[in-house]
Amino acid sequence: MKEGASSSLDEIQVAVTRVEGAEDIPLPKYMTHQAAGMDLAANIFEEVYIEPGEYKIIPCGIKIELPPGYEAQVRPRSGLAAKYGVTLLNSPGTIDSDYRGEIKVILINLGKQRFSLKRGDRIAQLVISGVVRAHLYEKDKLDETQRGDGGFGHTGV
Ligand SMILES: O=c1ccn([C@H]2C[C@H](O)[C@@H](COP(=O)(O)OP(=O)(O)OP(=O)(O)O)O2)c(=O)[nH]1
Ligand SMILES: [Mg+2]
């Protein structure tokens, strides 16, 4: 690991490239030895305001090349949620391994105050994860289980 906190955990290699004009935006990195997420920063050129109840798509200035069999999840930062009520509209966002566009974050302000954002602010975190793909085959009758078709609080709340 060249940047960020070093770790003895297994790691995969993921190529990253900055979009034009984002050369000053720090690459995402793990902030502690065993952090699961790397923070994504806002690639914006002027201050952005998100009013209560409003959402905005914020570009992060990077593109990644995930190996097949992996995804990246874009997840909220709990600090922004706890302090300002700001989270991700589509949490967790899914970055497919074949996506080569700029990573973007859909921030929504569920708080009561206008939220303001500056260039380079850390707005979300990226968690790389393995993916299991399934082949769906049709079957007339599914195996019976203890739960059966009970859901939505079937076991009590
Ligand atoms: O928070 C997100 C979610 C997605 N993406 C990018 C990467 C992902 O691979 C692509 C498609 O995302 P998704 O499958 O969630 O969106 P969709 O509405 O199903 O679009 P598509 O038809 O392109 O799959 O958009 C982001 O940059 N940020
Ligand atoms: Mg899709």
Automatic annotation (TrEMBL):
Q: What is its EC number?
A: 3.6.1.23
Needed cofactors, names only, are: Mg(2+)
Which biological pathway? Pyrimidine metabolism; dUMP biosynthesis; dUMP from dCTP (dUTP route): step 2/2
Q: Which Gene3D superfamilies does the protein's record reference? A: 2.70.40.10
* Highest taxon of source: Bacteria
Entry binding sites for substrate: 77-79, 90, 94-96
Q: Which GO terms describe its biological process?
A: dUMP biosynthetic process; dUTP catabolic process
Arranged from A to Z, the UniProt key words for this protein are: Hydrolase, Magnesium, Metal-binding, Nucleotide metabolism
For this protein, the record's InterPro entries field holds: dUTPase (IPR008181), dUTPase-like (IPR029054), dUTPase-like_sf (IPR036157), dUTPase_trimeric (IPR033704)
One Pfam family, short name please? dUTPase
Q: Where is the dUTPase-like domain?
A: 24-156
What reactions does this protein catalyze?
Answer: dUTP + H2O = dUMP + diphosphate + H(+)
What are the recorded GO MF terms, alphabetically? dUTP diphosphatase activity; magnesium ion binding
Q: Which HAMAP family match?
A: dUTPase_bact
Sequence similarity: Belongs to the dUTPase family.
What role does it play?
This enzyme is involved in nucleotide metabolism: it produces dUMP, the immediate precursor of thymidine nucleotides and it decreases the intracellular concentration of dUTP so that uracil cannot be incorporated into DNA.
Q: Which PANTHER family match?
A: DEOXYURIDINE 5'-TRIPHOSPHATE NUCLEOTIDOHYDROLASE (PTHR11241:SF0)
Q: What is this protein called?
A: Deoxyuridine 5'-triphosphate nucleotidohydrolase
Question: Which species is this record about?
Answer: Biomaibacter acetigenes
Name of encoding gene: dut
